[in-house]
Design a protein that fits this description.
58% of the residues lie in helices and 7% in strands. By secondary structure, the chain is of the alpha+beta class. Helix 10 packs parallel to helix 13.
Length: 402
Amino acid sequence: MLYAVGSAVKGFAVTLIIGLLANLFTAVFVCRLVFDILEKNRWITRVKMASIFPRPNVDFVGKRRIAAAASILVIVAGMAALISRGSGLLDIDFTGGTLAAVRFQQPTDPSAVRSLAAKTLPDATVEELQLRGEPAGHRFLIRTTLQDPERVKTKIRDGFGDRLARVGLAEQSMFDRLDNFGGQVAREMQSAAFAAIVISMFVIVGYLWIRFQNVRYGLGAVVALVHDVLVVLGLVAISGWLAGTVFGDALMLEAFKINLPMIAAFLTLVGYSVNDTIVVFDRIRETKGKGQPITWALINDSINQTLSRTILTGLATWAVALILYLLGGPAIHGFAFCLVAGVLVGTYSSIYIANPVLMWFGGTVGDPRLGGTAPASPKTSEKPVDRAKGTASGSRKNRKVA
């Protein structure tokens, strides 16, 4: 799906595909080979695995209503921010416009560049660039919805004047880069991005339906994925409200706009979130066995049994995303923000969203402490057995004494 979205993220998609295939080969073959060598040479005789929670017993499903209320609150706030920002939430990848890379002769404060660009160009956004070994405040990317490149060049020259540095040999050349995105291309990208997300969710429903032999597993996972996308999308919109505040500066927030790299982040999160959800679903299937109902108690036990794995995997992935957010630079700052928020949201939804939805699509109430009444014990027609005598009670009176 990533490969089909657009040329801007095809390199990322190819790298991700190769990485996943290499990871699968390493996990299935290389790890097995290494352990075989170590074991045959008696270099290892016992394998110990770290566990954060040896025997957790947390009542997760008992807090499902609080979690649902929190999710609804965040989604509603995000949708309000989304409506408030309107088309200003979309970058020129999806609206059409022009991108210009300029260079200043003297170090310039980014806020001053943003202020002057807002007065000069419609819907202008400014992003600072910094090359290694070069002082900050010299290079900037300016995006605007104005689609005429010549008018953009003229307005930038008139607005910034002699502060711009000349690039190249031409006397009038003041732009390191000047790219134009037409309205038709932008609309096609919007359609491709939306179709990629929707198709990926249908594929996930089909895959889980086949794997678990029950469509409700797929529906539970997709509801969790929709939740993740809505929450992260809402956080992207809310960033516009917090940017420039003390809280926003502490979190390194900007007025993020949705572009192709962010769509790549959303699709990546779809894959991560469903992988985390499948781990819990697998444990539910293994624990309940064939023909047994799914109960709240069963779901709670399965979550606790996989809790260490969920947290360890989530922390490892989140740490990488956080490093990318802190040190990755402005070009991928929005992409990294979606990953940082999405990994946390995806881990949360695999516990508090996917499993309750799985139960609501058709389960049996379990432990009354977990929000229901205990299922009635099945009636049997067997007679009680007198183990001391090895006979069924009441049978002695039917015997004839010789």
